[in-house]
Amino acid sequence: MASIELLLIIALASGFLAYLLGRVNRVYGAIVTIVSSMFVFSSLAYFGFTDSLDTTVSILPYVTFQVTYLGMFFAVMITFIYAMVSFFNPMFIKDYKYPGAYSMLYILSMAGVIGVFFTDNFMVMFFFFEFIVWTSMFLIPLGHSRKAAVSYYAFSAVGSFALLFAIFMMREAAGSFGINAGLAAISGTNAIVVFILLIVSAFAKLGAFPLHTWLPIAHGNAPHPFSPVLSGALVKLGAFVAVMALIKITPNSYVIVALDLPLAQYLVAIFAGLSIVFGTLMAIRQDDAKKLLAYSSMSHGGYILLAFSLGSSIGLSGGFYHIVTHALATGAAFLAIAAVGRQTGTTKMSELGGVIQKMPVTYVVYLIAIISMAGIPPMGGFISKWLIFQAVIDKGLILLAAAVFFGSIGSFLYVFRPLAALFLGQEKPQFKGILKEAPVIMLIPMIVLSGMNLVTGIFPNIFLQFINKVIVELGMAPVVLGTYTIQGTNGILDPLQITIAFGIGVVIAFIIFILLKKSKQVGLMDTYTAGNFIYSEELMHYSVDFYAPIERLYEKHTTHVQDMYKSLENKVKEFGNVVKYFFFTNKPEITVFWILIIIGALLWGDLL
Amino acid sequence: MSAILLIVIPLLAAFLSILVKKYSANILLVVSFASVVLLNYIPLEVITIGGFAAPYGINLILDQYSLIALYAVNVLFFLVVAINCAKFKKLSSILLVALAGLNGMILTGDLFNLFVFMEVSGIAAYLMTTTNQKPLATFNYLVQGTVGSSLYLLGLILLYAMFGTLNMQDMAFQISSSGYHIAVTAFPFLLMFIGFGVEAKLLPFNSWVQGILGSSNRLTGPMIASVYAAAIGFVLGRLLTELFVFEGTLLLIVTAILGFSIVAGEAMAFGAKKVREILLFSSIAQAALVALVFLSGFTGLAALLLIANTAGKLILFLITNTATDQLGNDDISTLQGLFVNNKVVGVSFTVAVLNVLGLPMFFGFVLKMNILLEFFQTDHLLWPAVILIVSVVEGIYFIRLLLKLWFKESDLPQVEFEFTLKYVVVVVAALLILFGVYTAPVEQAADDLTAIQYIEGGNL
Question: I want to staple B300 with a disulfide (CB 3.0 to 4.6 A). Which of A246, A298, A546, B450 is the partner?
């Protein structure tokens, strides 16, 4: 038996240890993050899957624990991402202004994850929820931009406070902070309000439209190793909140008979669909590879929300599986980009090219990750998207199905771009001779994640069986699984068969590759166009304005939501200025004037 | 030992310090420390002065509530003085008078006596703020403070004419047993509330704050924003719980004032570009929130929130004003990168800010959650919504400020923080964390304070 409390305390303590050791030598602090996160992940996974997590609490005040499949699903997955990413920390720690603080906050935010997912008490959950917010908030400015942390905090705060308000409403209904009691007790109009609040919270955390603007700013500017944690792990907190809202609360809303779907769920599905479409369109435009992946996270967040909102077993299963596959894929992709960023000093596609020649392993990792993200077999992303397609089509949601397909095809477009711009093409002159493959310690997690991307694609049932337990716990029928097959609503999927077919294709292609003549490498300047000799290699970089014709269709409409928040911000400032103008003068008589007005308000009708 | 010593000793020492100017700073330090120590030995009691029984004579009330208030005010006062007494020797006598006035305000059970102590501490404050070197601002403060206390006095005269008593307890009893219509007392109560509103920084009576705190120095900033704010807050809290009966139109007006102060204070802080302005506007919002919590009857939580806020403000103003004194101005751009080389100070500042924001692991979180819970339990859903929405705004500008202060690549501001200051801010910050994690005594204290036998009448 392993006590969750002990695990939490060890995690917290190792956070402070990381700080102290980080003061001695910054790399030591980073090594503590590896040890600590690996320890937490492996204990959670081992004891969790053998059903031997102990929930007794003897030291911490107020904290109570429970083990649910749902909580364990999230906790194990998120700590896995933390553990994988932690291998990058020693290599990046030298760049940070406050290395000790980085290591400490990294571990503390992970400790918060244990608290959120293993408690049965809303207040404890919120405590750790906010704890994660402020610890991770201080990690972001260690990267490129301070503003990123502010916008992360702002949207997180909206999410957290919406959640808090909902929690208090449920507490009033149930009489206690118990999670199950609270969710069960809420009813009537209050249920609608709680539902909306939880959905706002889920959208804000997950970065779904229209609460998405922080995603590219925060993910794009966070320290390279922290971006995968944000995108792969922490935004999934939103998915957890979404499950509470969409599955456990049934607001008394109008049911659309033709779709057999409550209006509330349908509206969430529509916004999720919009997230998919807008996220895809915005990702297509990005020059910075990290921002591109951030927008892709937005679109994948839409997939997850859409899947959950359909209320069917297949949809739920697809949503949960998509959380896993996206976390693995985006984690691997962000790590690959981080490795490139470390070796070259930039993640802008227009400044890079031909990285494959010096960093082939990183290239393969990225390739596998984007294949999974685009939903192509034999990677995990294919399975989860297949499940989601099944669920959407089964409900007959034509427009949403179109959005889902659009997102899938769109992701071909955008994930291919970094591949072409960053890894393929011509090597940039400034990196010639100095670029090297990432160090082994960074390759370890990338290779492990790639392996997982493959495993989730070939043997999805290992994971789906566990997800079935989660679904049953949520009160739904499990998805029918064979040894290797998945039973959909209109057919059976056999991932192993697909993989074998795919493998044969690869082998044939490889044979052709071997047999054909070797290609010859020529210098980039060894050409001319339209009678002009090329005098600078940059001119041959074709990744700038890669999809210009598509972008032109919507380039004027990409900033509406940002503009809205910007103007909201200005409105608050203006309001403050108006108040200042009316009340904060250097003239005491103005104060007297306001006093008279207030007294007048009291006496109005009696004496005046 | 009697509570009266808390007023008498500083007052005597004030006169003494004029005679021996050379040692005035030492006297100040010793006396302010002595009053903190003294608090441990005073029994809880009601002291009758001059042998006249309560409704006729003046009495001092030392109950659980005023004891906590005295602890907060005297400790904060001592800390501010300990850091500043060497630099502001000339003000020693005035500071001693201020201490006597503040202690008197908290202790007194007589409403006219309260006015006297308000004026005593007010005059000390006006004199203190002359060290800001902004005569016009001080003058405004003087005029507004006087208007406020005159209104308080006017309201009190009306009540005296109606009920023939000045004793707080007696007055509350008379009002509740007189059977007067509520509208009759509304006017004097509003006048008294406005009188306090000026000192308690409630909008729209607080335009002096910008001039005074916006150009404050190391002494006046923490003194006004922390020590005075604590004392006034506690007294206002007592009046709100025990004396004032706000109902009908009056309740609406007062609630509107407080709500507006909260929202407008945060909005103004959001747009501010100077560090001290951010702090002063945010303290307007906080003062109004404390008053609102008092008004809603959650006395214990309000008192603790007041302590948390004023302790936090002590850290924030001490650090900001030390840096401003040395750098010349308090534009955010000037102070940017302040903490890069002053990590200890920076961590304390950060803790104080996170405490104000009510983030977990800090004292503020415990209080915020309990306050929201109380509002929900009494079915007031509007206030939690308002508090949470302005919290987002508050969070944005505070986090923005923090990040500016922590990050700058080159050309860092050079500021020296002396050991005493570091010691003080670290200890206060450590306490804010301690009570954020170890919450049992906090909740006990809140329950105790709410459970005291308050006088009949008032809002409760």
Answer: B450
